[in-house]
Write a sequence for this structure.
């Protein structure tokens, strides 16, 4: 029987292990932490029964993942839930850009920008079954549905700032800028529209949903699926040398490229090693979880009904903060993402105490404390928030790296998503999962299609490994 070891039990490691196990491979999954999940873990620390997500929180890409949808994860307890509104970016005048569930609903609230919104997303969403699998695959492949993909992809290479000029209202520009800012890159740079377009398309097609009981429920369901297929999971096992795994026929690493280079060592071809050691990191995330009495008192009423609130002011302000963090400067008013998952999943709250998830975009490796800046940004759009806080849990960029070794300096995207790394991954090649060593592959979010809980990096890497075996 073919044997495989998967190192790292984030969503991609779990997906790789399941893909191999489904084909009869004897799989062992090794995880350095005490629990599996990587970026999809949850915790209960601020109050009994109060559930916070450690990292990934809203999952439009996971809900639409072809790999996850090939599994019956509902039998393992996974259930997706949605709030009334998906995303809001409030402005200082009390208005907001509002992302509603469907293209038509969102466009209807955009006034003169409604027609442009429909032009950008209507065709893609109606044909998501054709476009979605291509979006969640390596980009340098011949697509099965080139016309539909071209309609989605035509604006993707554009800087987000250029596309923003096409919107006539500050609310639509702000909403677009906040979603595009998930790239963690200056919005005037090429291809910063790509991730924003992908997130918005997936959101309209599937919703910005959360996992009932916390994102850890995704990891639990995937683990249960792997065990049902005969796989083995070992936690608290940190792999530091190739000697620990080289007896397996296949080895897949759900690790950032520098860690892979450190483990594989001189066995790695020199050109691959140079690329992995020179892998470019992105800016960081500074995270604060709050226990809040009665929820957040947003000035904008739609923000009170939304699972996600982006705090960056208008488009110009969001763009300025992303330029600052890319240049290593901490802005006075950082871009802040706020998660109110409890509005979709009331089971996460403890009575009238609600879990509020937040993180600020900060320079990579930022050593300061952004807690007050985050509170001030929320207070800016929700006066009285500070008085409602009954508990906090802070995770700095350093602590983020300890929580997940792939998140170097707080880089939760596992590398800069500049054009080259977004398209190719850690090195320029048509086979982004190959290490150049027979039987060894990288399957982390450093590879295409990149971050999120979709598991597609792991699935594609494992499929490549099986193909190399002639299966």
């Amino acid at each position: 029987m073919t044997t495989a070891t998967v190192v790292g039990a984030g969503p991609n490691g779990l997906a790789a292990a399941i893909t191999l196990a489904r084909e009869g491979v004897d799989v062992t999954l090794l995880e350095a932490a005490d629990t599996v999940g990587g970026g999809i873990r949850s915790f209960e620390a601020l109050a009994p029964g109060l559930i916070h997500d450690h990292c990934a929180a809203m999952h439009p890409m996971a809900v639409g993942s072809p790999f996850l949808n090939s599994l019956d994860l509902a039998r393992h307890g996974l259930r997706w839930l949605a709030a009334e509104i998906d995303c809001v970016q409030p402005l200082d005048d009390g208005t907001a850009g509002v992302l509603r569930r469907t293209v038509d609903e969102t466009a209807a609230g955009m006034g003169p920008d409604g027609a442009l919104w429909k032009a950008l997303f209507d065709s893609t969403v109606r044909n998501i079954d054709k476009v979605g699998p291509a979006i969640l695959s390596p980009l340098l492949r011949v697509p099965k549905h080139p016309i539909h993909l071209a309609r989605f992809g035509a604006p993707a290479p554009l800087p987000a700032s250029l596309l923003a000029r096409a919107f006539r209202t500050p609310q639509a520009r702000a909403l677009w800028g906040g979603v595009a800012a998930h790239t963690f890159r200056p919005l005037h740079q090429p291809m910063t529209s790509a991730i924003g377009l992908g997130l918005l398309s997936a959101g309209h097609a599937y919703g910005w949903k959360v996992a009932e009981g916390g994102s850890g429920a995704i990891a639990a369901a995937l683990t249960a699926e792997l065990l049902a297929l005969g796989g083995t999971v070992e936690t608290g096992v940190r792999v530091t040398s190739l000697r620990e795994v080289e007896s397996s026929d296949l080895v897949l690493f759900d690790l950032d490229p520098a860690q892979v280079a450190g483990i594989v060592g001189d066995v790695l071809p020199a050109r691959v090693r140079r690329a992995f050691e020179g892998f470019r990191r992105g800016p960081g995330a500074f995270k604060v979880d709050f226990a809040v009495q009665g929820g957040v008192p947003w000035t904008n009423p739609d923000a009170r009904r939304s699972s996600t609130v982006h705090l960056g002011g208008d488009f110009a302000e969001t763009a300025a903060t992303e330029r600052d963090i890319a240049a290593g400067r901490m802005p006075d008013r950082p871009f802040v993402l706020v998660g109110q998952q409890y509005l979709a999943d009331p089971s996460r709250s403890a009575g009238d105490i609600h879990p509020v998830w937040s993180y600020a975009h900060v320079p990579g490796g930022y050593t300061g404390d952004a807690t007050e800046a985050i509170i001030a940004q929320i207070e800016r759009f929700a006066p009285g928030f500070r008085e409602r806080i009954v508990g906090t849990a802070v995770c700095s960029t350093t602590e983020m790296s300890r929580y997940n070794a792939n998140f170097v300096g707080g880089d939760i995207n596992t590398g800069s998503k500049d054009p080259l790394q977004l398209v190719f991954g850690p090195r320029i090649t048509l086979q982004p999962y190959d290490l150049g060593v027979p039987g060894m592959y990288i399957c982390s979010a450093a590879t295409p299609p990149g971050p999120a809980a979709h598991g597609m990096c792991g699935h594609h890497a494992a499929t490549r490994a099986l193909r190399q075996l002639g299966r």
About this structure: Residues 50 and 304 are 19 Å apart (CA to CA). Residues 3-40+57-79+213-280+415-468 form a domain with the FAD/NAD(P)-binding domain fold (CATH 3.50.50.60).
